[in-house]
Structure prediction request, 228 residues.
Amino acid sequence: MILAAGRGERMRPLTDHTPKALLQIGGKCLILMIISELQRAGIRDLVINLAHLGEQIETFLGDGTALGVQIVYSRETTGEITTLETAGGIAWALPLLGDMPFIAVNADVYSDYDFSVLLAAAQKLNAGGPLAHLVLVDNPPQHPHGDFGLAAGKVQPEAATRHTFSGMGAYHPALFAGVKRGDRARLADLLIAAMQSGQVTGELYRGQWHDVGTPERLAALDQAARKA
Prediction:
């Protein structure tokens, strides 16, 4: 699942007329780069959630045939845009995702991470636990205090050394069992509850990773990509 329903408030004014997933680095849309990396890992069946300007994403990607993948869309709009948050958006999409573990990645992630590693981790998840596997990264300048700790392969809500959640993870549908479809829910809340019972595994990735969260970071990455 590619999480592309966000409003992209920090990216305004760029996202006033263009969804964040369609912003470009080095002449290529963020979401196309993610799809390419997923495809490289052998992942062909994709669910993309949509809200703010989602029709632009759907028009641009179509059903994915031209990209060698199959895309279905989880539309979170009913008249007015509904903000379901990350966990709420995933819970809304569960009928499309099925009852097996799945990978989810934020549409504003710019990385060379090998999704085949996350795919292997997803296959180890089950309803009895672990319920999730997170890819953590070293803390970027804009997020110096991190999110979670990591010890002996388990992610912890509190630790002396904390890392940043990359926006890439694998989840079992059972993690979202307590979220009523259509309700707003934060992914962090579900993950922390699962961590407290030892139900979340993780890894630390030290390759290229960027959260493309502001126009300034987008411009810097675009300039670097064009020079490469």
